[in-house]
Specification:
The chain has 272 residues and is mostly beta strands. It has a single domain, classed as OMPT-like (Lipocalin). 7% of the residues lie in helices and 72% in strands. It has one helix and twelve strands, in the order H-E-E-E-E-E-E-E-E-E-E-E-E. A hairpin with a 4-residue loop joins strand 11 and strand 12. It is elongated. It starts with 8 loop residues before the first helix and ends with a strand. The N terminus is likely disordered.
Amino acid sequence: MPRMPTCRPLHRALCAAIMLSFAPWAVADGMSPALDRVSLWLGGYSLEANVALEASVGTLGTGHLDLESGHENVGRARIDFLAFDNQGFTFDYFTLDRSASQTIDKPFTYQGEPYQLNSELHAKFNLAAGSLSYHWWFGSTNDIVGVGIGGTYYRVKLGINGMIAVNEESVAGGASWSDDAVAPIVTLAYKHAFSDRLRTYIDASGMRKNAGKLTGHLYDFRVGVEWFPWQYFGFGAEYGLTRIGLDHDGHSYDANLDFRLQGPSLFARARF
């Protein structure tokens, strides 16, 4: 009876090398075409920003001040990476830094300082927001749904200068505060791949932080499309809506900043 052919040591090494060379493709077969192993996003966020401040000091009551309303362009960066075909991680970061001037026409008190009516008020604020989120992606077809959790870091700085009333006289004065916090978020997403080079997605996340000196909420919704005219390089476009409310609980005063951001983003994309 003829003997069955066997792999000698050199042949066995060659067989192992061939099998290992196909291993990544075997793993990739279980991954949805709507996902990438590693994906980089670098671009800009063209948004309409509406920022309002409410402040209250003891028995002096509450004042409302519209700090900013208009168009703003900010940079934005994001990175996605995938583990085990369905465990997705995303880091997203952007900042908003503006100065604004406004003539106040109603009583306003901030950090115990009563600002004079019909005087010029100068405000400078900075918001930095970064999030790290996790998605468990369900499915390996062209349509997948992801649910998960994560954390958001936000830092806010605010300074105000103007004319204040001291002993019934007007003098220049101002006040400022800065604080940061970390809060958990819940995420929900959907992705569809028309092909390996054209995809669309919807992503929503939210959080609420009720403890600490800086509390508040953040809600974010995005819808977008990804197009790769080349295998590893392409473009992304999305439209986003973001609402951020931050409450600062001080010893002698309280302040609330309300950010409403919306607009399109454009990205240069790279995937591996």
